[in-house]
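As agreed, record minuted below.
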Amino acid sequence: MNTTATLKDQWKELIQTEPGLRIRNAASKLGVTEAELLATRVGEDVTLLKPEFQDILNEIESLGKVMALTRNNEVVHERKGEYLNPTLDNPHVGLFVGDDIDLRIFFASWKFAFAVTDDNGRMKRQSIQFFANDGEAVHKIYLTDKSDENAYQKLVEKYRAKDQESSIVVEPKKEKEVEKPDNEIDLASFRKGWTELNDTHHFFGLLKKHNLARKQALRLAPEGNYAVKMDKDAIKSILQKAVKNNVSIMVFVGNKGMIQIHTGEVKKLLERGPWYNVMDPDFNLHINMDGIVDAWVVRKPTEDGMVTAIECFNKDEDQVVQFFGKRKPGIPELESWREIVSEVESEHKLS
């Protein structure tokens, strides 16, 4: 394995040959993780923070308006706003529930935190970045021109780790669990459980009960239109129709440690190379269409009526983004959302 000094030199050399290369892509090219690469800058423009994640997050509101970033390999979700209404007293899960920043946090995999300053001479970006035990980024918080930089500096100093190590030890990535064979699934019980759901959140428990992978469950859905497979361009269509019809939507993007949610209308769409983007003032979404394999319409019964989602998957059958119509418990799903989903389904359904 590379020493830190060697890795640092390799990164510098790579940047010289590929100016503007993002750290995530540089890490991939160098065969290391983003956290390991970032650690080589500790003592310069990166500060290692104590792994007191709940305490740090509890003080993020003091920074004012920031930009929250959560991503996986295929989709990047960026939302500007304030971190309000935290629930962080549980060591395993946490919440922020605000109109702008809306997060579901899973702390089991969290291990590293850094304060990072990126300055290319034209623009300085300051952030707090959190990483999982395998070195993958789970969440990043960037200052905006409306943030309180003094509060940021105080936060960094308060949680600065005593030992500013320029190398870290990451754990191997977990092997993906082998999917249970279809013929070992109690299909009748699973399908009955699906049709009798009364809350969308209970779907995860249903999958766990039957030891089902997410996409496997969609393949084995009850008869009818509970799960309908579509080509990946359904993603573009659903966003285009939401813009055209001024339909407020919910966009969920997650990884092992975080789910980030946007709720509201989307206005500006932009296609650039393989990336399909939402480029609104306070919400940006970047979808690498080359990494998407298919999209599914998924319907689940609830006490408020049927709830309809678009779920999108990569080649590894990981769910990378979900779309819903704007809704809250106790309020039926938007009829305008159901209408555009039906249109998209008829246009992009795979036989």
